Amino acid sequence: MAGLNLPEICYLLFALLSGLLIGSFLNVVIHRVPLDRSIVFPGSACPSCGARIRAFDNIPLISFILLRGRCRDCDARISIRYPAVELLTGLIFAAIVWKTAPTWVALLEMIFAASMIALVFIDARHQLLPNVITYPTFLFALAASTVRAGWGSPIIYAFDFSLIFTSAQADFPVTRAAITGGVLLAIAVPGFLLIDKLDLILFNKYFEWEEMNEGASTEDRADADRRYDRLIGATMLLGLLCGIAWASSTLLLARDNMAAFENAWDGLIRASIAAFVAGLITWWIRAVYFYVRGFEGMGLGDVKMMAAIGAFLGWQGAFSTLLLGSIAGAIIGGIMAFRNRSGIRTALPLGLFLGAAAIFVLIWMDQGG
Ligand SMILES: [Zn+2]
Question: What is 63-106 written as a DSSP string?
């Protein structure tokens, strides 16, 4: 641990505080997304008595301590999960800035980590990895890997003549990269929809989504479905825009910025391959498990989550995540099964372990790897 100077301490503190605030927002996501409720409206309320939570009682971490973990109105216990998520997000954000230095690459990593935290806690509670999180995370991961590879490395910014020289000689296929990359980004989200449909046909499993909402009325269901369709539609449109942005900027700017665009192109291809391989391996495990055991041991959400992890962490990162996550899941699942004596059929939220492993790999992985 090298001595910290004042600016470094400020950056770390700032990351910690941002993490506490984002963690507070993640609590809303974790609570509402599985219930198919809007994360924007209405404001937060006590789950016990329904009283609106006042702004000054909504300060991350501090309010929980001041209120001694109880609702101001009805005295009901507030779940320890709320301050835990806030503190965890704060610490992870600080760790990312510690590792990556305060650059916008760290910002991309924070967004990815935030999405993993949401998935981990939702999976732990509901054994569910919602599409409204996995779809946008995948698109984000693909776009982030492209931009990071092209403009995130400090080498690109260093005033290095030899770099310009070699890149001018390099044979970068501008038109092909523009078209292929644009198509890749544009079809990423519809590709996820295709996986959903294909999986449905192959396994003929439809009930998962229904079970969740047994209590909900038909109108609530229709409302939630509409909101879900809108979100997926918006993500698709965003993917299309990313594709168009990539294609047009490559055609217009690549010839003058060969090195950056060549790296970005490389990043996009690597991310796509890693996502495909990570998703395929996970899906294969799902299929084998399904046929051997005769029930669904691993959800399709895990497959989509691993594709997103592959797109962001690359194939080495995805491989480490899968290995770490499975080992942790097997150990803890084994302990649980032993203690319950109910056999191995206890549903294990694998997404929980994959998400935790992905954050671990993100923080400990070789920089720029
Ligand atoms: Zn209350």
Answer: HHHHTTTB-TTT-PBPPTHHHHHHHHHHHHHHHHHHHH-SSHHH
CA distances from 46 to 19, 53, 84, 107 (A): 23, 7, 17, 32
Query: Other CB atoms closer than 10 Å to residue 320's CB: what's the count?
Result: 19
Q: Which segments of 212-299 does DSSP mark as H helices, in order?
A: 218-253, 258-293
Task: Report pLDDT for 164.
Answer: 45
* Residue among 40, 86, 42 nearest 63 (CA): 86
Query: Which residue carries 């990351």 as its tokens?
Result: 15
Calpha distance 214→187 (Å, rounded): 33
Instruction: DSSP letter for 40, please.
Output: S
- C-alpha to C-alpha distance for 135 and 1, rounded to whole angstroms: 38
Query: Could you tell me the distance, in angstroms and rounded to a whole number, from the CA of residue 368 to the centre of ligand 1?
Result: 47
pLDDT of residue 186: 96
Instruction: With beta carbons less than 8 A apart as the criterion, state whether 254 and 177 touch.
Output: yes
Q: Give CA–CA dist 324/353, Å, rounded.
A: 8
In the chain, count H helices and then E strands.
13, 0
Ligand 1 centroid distance, CA of 333 (Å): 35
Read off the DSSP letter of residue 155.
H
Distance CA 310, CA 274 (A): 5
Residue 1 has pLDDT above 70, yes or no: no
What is the end-to-end Cα distance of the chain in Å, rounded? Answer: 22
Residue with tokens 């599409």: 131
- Distance from the alpha carbon of residue 59 to the mean position of ligand 1, in angstroms: 16
Ligand 1 center–CA 76 separation, angstroms: 6
Q: Where are the domains of the chain?
A: 1-92, 103-364
The residue-averaged pLDDT of 97-119 equals 92
Name the pTM for this structure. 0.88
The burial class, CB within 10 Å (0-12 / 13-18 / 19+), for 282 is buried
What is the Å distance from ligand 1's center to 26 Cα? Answer: 20
Give Cα separations from 235 to 193, 210, 289, 364 (angstroms).
11, 23, 31, 30
Phi/psi-derived region of residue 366, left when phi > 0, alpha when psi is between -120 and 50, beta in every other case: beta
